[in-house]
Queue: 3 jobs
Job 1
Amino acid sequence: MAPTSEHPEAAAHDATERSSAARVDHAASAVDGSAPTSSAGEPPESAAAEASPIPTSRRASSGPGGRVIALTGAASFLGRNLIGILEEDPRIARVVAIDIKPPDTGGSKLRMHTVDLTEPASEERVAEVLAAEQVDTLVHLCFLSSPTAATAWAHELESVGTMHLLHGARQASLRKLILWSQTILYGAHPTNPNFLTEKHPLRADPDERFFADKMAAERELNAFGAKAKGTTVTILRTAPILGPTVQNYLTRFLARRLVMTMLGFDPLWQFIHEVDAIAAFKLAIDSDFPGTFNIVGDGVLPLSTIVRLAGRTAVPVPHSAAGPLVSGLWAAHAAIAPPSFLRYLRYLCVADGEKAAQVMGFRPVYTTREALLDYTSAQRLRDVRLLQETPA
């Protein structure tokens, strides 16, 4: 996110945005010709439509009885929506949920296995589940979407839990392993280029547990991929996810009547619509794309514009006062995020999605602006109690 001087970049991107209606129509008949899910509130499978067909050699092969997909964090927002889509894919024989509670989108294909990745015994349990279910693809989604004050537990879940999962996966014959990561791990810095590619290092605050554990999980997965011959390893770094049903620190930040900003700074932000985020994972499940990919919406917006479009009032706070203020509120469990997130109110942290477009064929249906407006429409109904909150 950058100072006000970089706003022409936002205008240039917004000028190239295609109409939302045209892309929605295009998405409805896209990925592999599959129809959108009919379940209420579930995003369509085809949101990441490719303009040209994916080569047959890169498609994940199905066994005689169909493919078996396992997901950690199955009860999370991404997990339960992916399960709803996988249930309707005729190429999928079974969907294996690995979590401490079952998702509410499971159907006849779902096999639930209660596994707590924070427990040392989870390594053996994961190995047993993967072998017994004959899983060919494992999607690791068991990461927090918002910061928590329970940092010790978060470390056990994300960093140590990923190690337990990968140790168990080494004992199975996986074809593919997909991990969810986030573009905010690049960090917000005044020296950042306009768009960060996958070649840029992850420079988020290493002292902040929310960032450090996710960066450690990426390192663990890359080490696993270097040794696990024959297993396709994919990391999808999503921009902050926004939409009408998702809940995270970003949606809570924009849901407040008064939105804190930093005096003298107006950084550029980008989002990925919840539909597009889910579609990117489905695309990675369907075909083999080894490597790391930024999953972002087209276009960027200044924070001042985001606050205005959300119908909120910005409250500029001097940098010298913001740190102590947020520290005190976070300690009192009254803040949305810890003080380390204040950097994103000052500096640029915008990722380049060109690699995902060229290699995966990922084309987001929603722009950053459209993702914001879709969220805002639903939030206005929540503001007047006409729409029930959906748990994240």
Job 2
Amino acid sequence: MFATYLIGLREGLEATLVVSILVAFLVKSQRRDRLPQVWAGVGLAVALSVLFGWLIEYTSTSLLARSEDRELFEAITSVAAVVFVTWMIFWMRKAARTIAGELRGKLTEALAVGSLAVAGMACLAVIREGLETALIFYSAAQGAAGDSGPLLALIGGIVTAVVLGVLLYASALKINLSKFFTWTGALLILVAAGILKYGVHDFQEAGVLPGLGNLAFDITNVLDPTTWYAALLAGMFNVTPAPTVLETIAWIGYAVPVLLLFLRPTRRTPASGAATTGPAAPSTPAPAAASGPGVEASERTSPSTTTVTERGADTGAEAEAEAASAPQRA
């Protein structure tokens, strides 16, 4: 259940920070009248994400009659979830420094178009996190049919993320987001390795891959599957006492190189080369007049800053900038 809690916490906090950036921009721009459209877009994104999750579950349990087809479907969704997790982690590492400016720029354009554009922009900004959460949750919770624990853990993670996001926005909480995203990113890589291992096992059960009975090792006598710690390892990272050779190769082959790439020190790029693409993200310390309504010099966060400490309305934007300011110095 910890794995699904972590998924909800990580994805939920990213979505919460995105929403806080949009809300802060409207508040500072004296456009509070557009807040209902933003919340409508967020609500639509949540509803579509829940619908997507239900469709995945319905397809697996009702539309696919043969067990081989269900195993193949679960294997494909597992591989897709691993791709999304990997892309999300590295995208957050690379793009979080400029996402605030890009979101503000897109929202400025949407304000010029109308209410529907604002709602649509907010929906698109949040729905990516929602669809990823639904897919990753389904893959991580496979094998827990009839158990409401993973779903409750996911909801708990999302609720925790929302509370943290609100406190960050109100400047009532200081949190080192660089360390947070580094640690959760590393843990999610291990979770993704377990999901990939599970997917390989499903491919083997579906007859797509061979070697279902070819075990890499069997340490059942040491790691008793009935113990709580064996259940914890299996639930979090899909570490089992008797994996097949292909499962073991998949787990190690993914976890080791991806962790090394994620945790390697990054080179600092010169400030002149860190220009953003968003029209509301100035690359020089220009006055607000050069950056559009509501976009102030607070967009520029010092690379050494790693805690959210002030300017409640700017907290969401600063939090996103901090998440990529020095993610490997944790």
Job 3
Amino acid sequence: MTKGQLRKRHLIQQLVFSVFAVTLLFTIAALFSIIYFIFSRGMSVVNWSFISTMPRMGMSEGGILPALLGSFYLVTGSILIASPLGVFAAIYLTEYAHQGKLLRFIRIGINNLAGVPSVVFGLFGLAIFVKYFGFGVSILSGSATLAIVILPTIIRASEEALLAVPDEYRHASLAMGATPWQTVKKVTLPAAMPGILTGVILGVGRVAGETAPIIFTAATFFSIKLPSSIFSEVMALPYHIYALVTAGTMPHKQTALAYGTAVVLLGLVLFINLIAIVLRIRYGNKIKK
């Protein structure tokens, strides 16, 4: 290869790396611009009273305690439902199912399910959980619907994490007399846990901001009391923001409250993600040891 060809290849490489760097910087700048935009308009109303009190005066004053608790219950419930279902489904697809056309068809269905608009899941939850099973508009119906929304994400992330575990781990465990389930439980699953938690983190980020599924299954416009059971309807942060912006009677007051609610919603997502990241790091450290 001549010097001219080497120089040309070097220039092309530098150009490609420069494009990647510019793209990364643009993405980071857009992210921080959005965060700054929301926080600069919402932090002025966020304080302990805003977080810990009930809304008053047609939601033009007071706090967001019912919406905050409602979102926390919905996110927690959906993760508790979707995580075991998604992980068990991924274990079956990777460790037990026979490779073939049927399995490829199932994977195509899972991928397509991830692209279904969330409002469709809301209508499904209304028909199945609210009406057919008789759960009503409640935390349980909303959590179950949101669990279906994030189920494809958790399945695919868990499946990829399990496939990334070297086959030598499985062969060594089976050679020492362990059963297939013992191998999955003691060897494969712990090694794949960081990747599985990544899927859960992505799921948390999605369901925390979903509005369409919970409009039909869990959310109420306004409530003067906190939920007392999983069959209670709840206020939720994303729907509360929507209500303040679109149906408020005092826009000059409620717009600021909407931005403050958005700040709290971002904080809730970051807090839940932080917990998942800490768990992922702990699992990763255990595997290294």
